[in-house]
Specification:
The structure is a single chain. By secondary structure, this protein is an all-alpha fold. It is elongated, with a radius of gyration of 35 Å.
Amino acid sequence: MKMPPRKLSTGKREMVSPNDPHYTEKRAKNNDAVKKSREKTRQKAKETMEKVSQLKQENEMLEERIKLLAKELTFLKDIFMAHAGSSHGITVDDMEIKSLLEDDDEMIEGKECY
């Protein structure tokens, strides 16, 4: 596909003297605007980096909490299994608890993918 020919500008720019007060004023305003824009960009980048750092820290804390809760769940399951298997006359099979506990194990393993 061929591109259409470019339109050439008419080139009617005025030659402006750097000593012209109007030109000097426009340049000063433009320079201020550029400084302001660049400072705003730097500030936004700084805020983004701070947010990333905060979220990483929060993520690490949550990962530790997941590990702690998984250990607690395993501990409680072990206590439950020991209690259910004791002399109460109730077996784990009677309560259909074994399948529920296996489901919990699968759920925990699935969450570790995060």
